[in-house]
Design goal:
Shape: globular
Radius of gyration: 17 Å
Number of strands: 0
Order of helices and strands: HHHHH
Helix content: 40-55%
Length: about 140
């Protein structure tokens, strides 16, 4: 270093990490249907909030208007997760807690506001259901 000091780096949590300490977006608990819906809402909100923070951190280190825009949209949608309708819940319920849930949630969250500029919470849910319903690509 020119001045003999080490640069200060801020380690941001990676919402897309795997392994020890990685976030489990499945939110699995026992209980009744309302508990599972509440767990789903918490999972959606946590993923959107986590991805928002990740995008804001990227923007702080490597300014890009798309990251700033995405972070704002993700925060907005995280706040809307508590308004998950019964119809939206019905479409998510068969997939909630599946082994594909966490990865699909991360993939769709990463697209919000960045690859796809404007999204409503309803569009996010539809896109997530589409991702979860798509056939799994084989490694062949």
């Amino acid at each position: 270093m020119p001045n003999g000091r080490r640069p200060n780096f801020i380690r941001l949590p990676n919402p897309h990490a795997h392994g020890p300490g990685a976030t489990n977006h499945a939110g699995l608990t026992g209980g009744n249907r309302n508990t599972k819906k509440s767990d789903c809402i918490a999972s959606l909100s946590a993923s959107l909030t986590s991805t928002s923070r990740w995008r804001a951190g990227l923007d702080a280190n490597w300014p890009d208007h798309r990251n700033a825009r995405a972070a704002k949209l993700l925060d907005k949608l995280a706040g809307e997760a508590s308004n998950l309708s019964e119809e939206q819940w019905e479409s998510l319920a068969p997939h909630f807690g599946s082994e594909r849930w966490g990865e699909a949630l991360r993939e769709v969250s990463r697209l919000l506001g960045f690859a796809v500029r404007k999204m409503s919470f309803d569009y996010f849910v539809r896109r997530l259901v589409g991702q979860l319903s798509a056939p799994v690509a084989s490694g062949l």
